[in-house]
Design a protein that fits this description.
The complex is a heterodimer.
Chain A: H1 6-16, E1 26-27, H2 33-59, E2 61-63, E3 69-72, H3 76-82, H4 85-117, H5 123-130, H6 132-135, H7 138-148, H8 154-161, H9 177-203, H10 207-214, H11 220-249, H12 252-257, H13 269-278, H14 283-310, H15 314-317
Antiparallel strand pairs in A: 2-3
Helix pairs in contact in A: 2-14, 3-14, 4-9, 4-11, 9-11, 11-14, 13-14
Chain B: H1 8-44, H2 48-52, H3 65-71, H4 74-107, E1 108-109, H5 113-123, H6 128-141, H7 148-173, H8 176-184, H9 189-200, H10 202-218, H11 221-226, H12 236-243, H13 251-285
The chains are: A mainly alpha, B mainly alpha.
């Protein structure tokens, strides 16, 4: 075999073979493992770490047009933002938007996941159609919803057909319903993936727990509340965090549908800072908002990770059924 | 109340009642889910006069002219091509980076293994809108604005974290004995990865790839910003968005374009669904 003696081969193999105790990853002996990790790390550093530092630097500078700066501004960009009524209004709207979309999404997804969990005729087709909002681009869906929500458009027509013509409003032209409409479409976008995650989590719950409990239990809802809910807590925490980040940071839907209007009334921080940068061409000011947003996200992530660590997965702890 | 006390009919009535409620809720949910696609199809076959006034669902005089006209337009195919270039670029680049990294993370315990995975996870919390400003300046300096490369690089970085987590979960499923056996054939490291690991985990890798492709296909903000000066490179998403800024919007061609954008990703999603659910289950369990 290419002139390699058997002895050499076995020693070579012994060196290379990962030494393991059943199923645990082997200890990498050479520095070669880092060669596999470095390419991905370079891209992550280039796109996340360097720009983040740049962002902080930019936020301390005075802006002069496109990608240009004119000297240091100290903390004045931050001072301008933190004392501006518009910033606080948009920050508050961001909270309403995020909490609204995430909480409604979670409730709807738990309901849908429990409905599609058990087999029934047409389940595959039904699930596939429910995933349609996730498979389509948010920007394109936003444009289509915009068209459908026009006065006398297809949303109004559908409401008339089911006898709800009294509920018709100028959907996106006025507050507060514009933000409510956007939140509902945000839920429409987020539900499919969340349902998928929660359904996957439900699949992980052993069937015999239900069987054992149903011997003495009252109703389906009772089972869901006392068995599914506590066992799903870990999965729901994961989906809450994933949705929180995505929804808080979401840009395309609001940008496409209202651009934050009318007069900033549907704007959120992500859209606001984008417009500060690329419409008003004030990179310094926009970076100050960006830094504030990042600090907030770091704080929330920290709290969340602490929560996850303090409350480990119920699977590991052993399921408790009262 | 014990069910034994009730006549047999009462119990089966209760069961059917539950099925009716379930069917009703699911019917409403499906209707709401497919609503925009119905709007696309409905609008694309309506003559302009029927869009201008009060709209009805069923067109009085449906027409296929917009479909025919739009499918012959070079604009539609150009934007589909651009979307395909970006989506393929994102898939190829992020797989090339994520597969080796995930393999090592799944298989070797080394200093920083856990830290690497956690740092990767933290990048996931960063707002694209936050990074887009410094990235714009950076790309300006390195002449990456108005090029596919810039959009592909940034989008790949954003799909990388979840890809690594998903692939790591798939690779962990392959038993370590197989790797030990393969090592006797001198198939270790990169050779083991390409000759054994990748073929064995092909379904998982395919699911990840399809997810990455969908992300690239549907990406909007980076293309909008970094390709703003090169309309010939606009993907379908930016093309659709830019046409609503026009003075009078031609809705039917727009809806045909939108439909052409949804069809490929939906078909891909159907192909990916089963493996995606399996992968999610693995990731959640770990």
């Amino acid at each position: 075999l290419l002139g390699i003696g058997e002895h050499q081969l076995t020693t070579a193999a012994a060196e290379l073979v990962p030494q393991t105790v059943e199923g645990t990853p082997a200890r990498g002996k050479s520095r070669r493992v880092y060669l596999y990790l470095i390419p991905a790390a370079i891209l992550l550093v280039g796109v996340f770490a360097i720009p983040l530092v740049d962002s902080v630097v930019l936020s301390l500078q005075k802006s002069a047009g496109l990608a240009g700066t004119s000297g240091w501004a100290g903390l004045s960009n931050f001072k301008t933002e933190l004392t501006s009524a518009v910033f606080w209004q948009i920050a508050w709207q961001t909270v309403i938007w995020t909490v609204g979309v995430v909480s409604l999404t979670t409730v709807v997804s738990i309901g849908l996941a429990s409905l599609i969990r058990d087999p029934f005729r047409g389940r595959t087709l039904c699930t596939a159609l429910l995933m349609l909002p996730w498979a389509s681009s948010i920007a394109v869906s936003g444009v289509v919803w915009l068209f459908a929500l026009e006065p006398n458009g297809l949303v109004d027509r559908s409401l008339t057909l089911v006898g709800l013509q009294k509920a018709i409003l100028p959907w996106l032209a006025n507050t507060p319903q514009a933000l409510v409409v956007l939140i509902l479409i945000g839920v429409w976008i987020s539900v499919p993936f969340t349902t998928l995650i929660i359904a996957a989590g439900m699949k992980g719950i052993p069937k015999d727990i239900y069987e054992a409990a149903s011997l003495e239990s009252k109703s389906r809802l009772h089972l869901e509340w006392f068995i599914t809910r506590p066992l799903l807590r870990h999965v729901i925490l994961v989906s809450l965090m994933a949705n929180f980040v995505v929804v808080f940071n979401s840009f395309p839907l609001i940008y496409v549908m209202t651009g934050g209007g009318p007069i900033n009334n549907t704007s959120i921080l992500a859209v606001y800072l984008y417009e500060q940068a690329f419409t008003d061409l004030d990179f310094g000011q926009a970076s100050a908002i960006a830094v504030l947003v990042s600090l907030l996200l770091v704080a929330v992530t920290f709290v969340y990770v602490r929560m996850l660590i303090n409350r480990p997965s119920p699977y590991r702890r052993g399921a408790r059924v009262d | 109340v014990s069910t034994d006390a009730l006549p047999p009919g009462a119990f089966s009535f209760r069961v059917r009642w539950g099925a009716v409620v379930r069917f009703g809720i699911l019917a409403v949910a499906v209707a709401v889910s497919v609503f925009p696609v119905l709007v696309m199809i409905d609008t694309a076959i309506k003559p302009s006069a029927e869009i201008a006034e009060v709209q009805r669902w069923i067109p009085v005089a449906p027409t296929g002219q917009f479909f025919v006209h739009e499918l012959e337009s070079s604009q539609l195919w150009l934007s589909l091509r651009n979307s395909a270039i970006i989506a393929t670029g994102v898939t190829v680049l992020s797989l090339l980076l994520a597969v080796p990294a995930s393999y090592i993370l799944a298989r070797r315990a080394f200093r920083g293994n856990r830290t690497y995975l956690n740092v990767v996870l933290v990048t996931q919390t960063m707002a694209p809108a936050v990074l887009i400003i410094p990235l714009f300046s950076l790309f300006h300096r390195f002449h990456l604005l108005n090029s596919y490369a810039g959009v592909i690089l940034v989008s790949s970085a954003f799909v990388l974290p979840f890809s690594i987590w998903l692939l790591t979960a798939f690779f962990r499923q392959v038993s370590i004995e197989i790797e030990e056996a393969a090592a006797l054939d001198m198939a270790t490291g990169l050779r083991f990865l390409t000759r054994f690991m990748i073929p064995m985990c092909l379904p998982g890798i395919a699911a990840t790839a399809i997810w990455q492709f969908m992300y690239g296909w549907n990406e909007f903000m980076f293309s909008l910003t970094f390709l703003s000066g090169a309309s010939s490179k606009w993907p379908l998403t930016v093309q659709v968005y830019s046409s609503i800024g026009e003075y009078s919007v031609a809705w039917q061609p727009l809806m045909v374009t939108a439909l052409m954008g949804v069809i490929p990703t939906f078909i891909l999603f159907l192909a990916l669904r089963r493996w995606f659910e399996v992968g999610l289950g693995q990731t959640l369990a770990s």
